[in-house]
Amino acid sequence: MAAYYNEWEPFAAQWLRNLISAGHIPAGDVDERSITEVQPDDLRGYRQAHFFAGLAGWAYAARLAGLADDFPIWTGSPPCQPHTRANPNRRGLADKRHLWPELARLVRACRPPVLFGEQSADAIANGWLDEVASDLEGAGYTVWAKGIPACAVGAEHERLRLWFVADSGEPGLSLSERQTLLRARRREERAATAGGHGWSAQSGLVPVLHGVPGRVGGIKAAGNAIVPQVGAEVIAAYLECLP
Q1: pLDDT of 146-169, one tens digit each?
Q2: Going by C-beta distance under 8 Å and a sequence separation of 6 or more, which residues neighbour residue 83?
Q3: What CA dihedral angle connects 161, 29, 110 and 138, to 10 degrees?
Q4: What total of structural domains would you count in the chain?
Q5: Which domain holds residue 112?
């Protein structure tokens, strides 16, 4: 019933282990291999699988959305460097860091009931979403996608990202189970608002200008991370829209 986390950056992989030890995310195994080396048999027995796991933003988002740690879910936010305008050397779908095909390979083989993902909104312009939708729909999934900024959940920065959901159409949660999850989520939201426990938009990270090696990994990992609060809203919206 453990979760599977795939993250090849050593600094982020250790961060995942620390989060697991502290109980902040579901217990599980951290695999530091490249996704190109992961085979379908490696994923047997796991209820959750988080690829390009980074700082476990999706695993934490699932908890924020009220999902149990054994809820069957796959997530993946492939590298944005091939697609973002912030990278002057981006090559789009021709970039060797364009790793969506590897995640698609595992989805086709393992057939998870639902896949959530995120990517730079710039990727829409170079055909990334077209490829993702084509691959998933060809495998029998229904795909939804939408651009959502971090400020949509109260952050003080835009951080516009493309979020997507792919559903296999196989039997999943009953209506009563979904309603129970959503009611619990709304109760938590109301309690947080009443208690003044909003989340801070300030990361507290200071840019590294002249080296300080001990902080480089943290800043790189945070820069690649998703905003869990947006991910939680995407998951909640998916639960609400299921027939």
Answers
A1: 999 999 988 887 888 999 999 998
A2: 90, 92, 95, 98, 119, 120, 122, 123, 126, 128
A3: 10
A4: 1
A5: 3-191+203-241
